[in-house]
Design a protein that fits this description.
By secondary structure, the chain is an all-alpha fold. Helices cover 76% and strands 1% of the residues. It is built from twelve helices and two strands.
Length: 323
């Protein structure tokens, strides 16, 4: 024990530098390496779920619940998914297909029947539009058509407002890379900007240890007594040797940590890229083209319906008599 205490007192500076290196290594392991491995498992779980969804047929409906459950394992991933999910849109039916298309055709058919019956009641005369409500109350057939027309319009509005009536896959209005970025999923949670400087810090600590050993050895070197010069020189060489050993240890740790950091980050970046590819494959981002197409079609249908109503009203009203 006395020899150990004497050794510690003689090389306290080297033991201090070694303790600093050990603390840095422990902090690096707990705050970077372990979280990076946990992130690996979380991204693997999400990619496995997305891979299964991507292998399904193109027209298969997709349940978003498993993706949301896997994303909740990681706060950054969950936040990115919440933002990306808001860009998902249920596909819409065309004017001639599916329940929505059938409802639109029924509304158009009932509208034609209603105005045709009104023209019959007008008997070639001028039809007062303010009398439509009273005519619908007295004419049983016209009242029935008017009720069916209102019900058909309400049904169409419910179908268009309810995404569950739509079939096929979901579609995204933006690419996944805009939300699932490497900065948001990897760099920020793992604090890569800080831990990328750890190898340089280790090298600096090793250099400090070397100079500390040299300074401590030179301070204790006494040349005034020729009889003690050989012992002092031997002690100086041992001190310098231990200092260089600590410096070599620090440089070795810096190289190992650099390799470990690049390996872990490269693997996580590759997983994020796979996640982006899976999402783009599943949700087929259209960047707003289909939304614009839908808006254009709705505008054309509204203009066509307005023109049809106007033509039927003009046909129902006779031309004014010439004087």
């Amino acid at each position: 024990m006395p020899d150990l205490m004497k050794h510690l007192a003689a090389y306290w500076h080297l033991w201090t530098v070694a303790a600093v290196l050990g603390l840095i290594a422990l902090h690096y392991l707990v705050r970077f390496v372990i979280p990076a491995l946990q992130l690996k498992n979380q991204l693997n779980a999400v990619n496995a779920t997305l891979s299964q969804l991507a292998s399904r047929p193109a027209e298969t409906s997709i349940d978003l619940t498993p993706i949301h459950q896997d994303a909740q394992l990681n706060p950054a991933l969950d936040h990115a998914w919440q933002a990306y999910a808001r860009t998902l849109q249920a596909p819409w039916q065309s004017a001639d297909n599916g329940p929505v298309g059938a409802a639109r055709q029924r509304v158009s058919h009932l509208s034609s029947q209603f105005f045709a019956h009104m023209n019959t009641n007008a008997d070639g005369g001028r039809l007062d539009l303010s009398a439509i409500e009273g005519l619908a109350q007295t004419d049983t057939q016209l009242a029935s058509l008017w009720q069916e027309y209102n019900q058909a319009v309400e049904t169409l509005q419910k179908l268009e407002a309810n995404p569950r009536t739509h079939s096929g896959p979901w579609q995204a209005s933006q690419y996944a890379e805009h939300h699932f970025t490497e900065q948001a999923l990897v760099d920020s949670p793992l604090q890569t900007h800080f831990f990328s400087h750890i190898p340089g810090i280790l090298t600096g600590v090793g250099i400090i240890g070397t100079f500390t050993g040299l300074i401590a050895g030179l301070i204790g070197f006494d040349v005034s007594n020729p009889q003690q010069v050989q012992n002092e020189l031997s002690q100086l060489v041992q001190t310098v040797g231990h200092a260089f050993l600590v410096s070599a240890l620090a440089i070795t740790l810096a190289m190992v940590f650099t390799w470990l950091e690049k390996s872990l980050l490269t693997g996580r970046y590759r997983q994020v890229e796979q996640l982006q590819q899976h999402l783009d494959t599943i949700f087929a981002p259209h960047a707003g083209e289909q939304h614009l197409e839908r808006l254009t079609l709705a505008t054309e249908m509204q203009a066509s319906l307005s023109l049809q109503i106007l033509q039927q009203l003009r046909a129902a009203a006779p031309a004014p008599a010439k004087r």
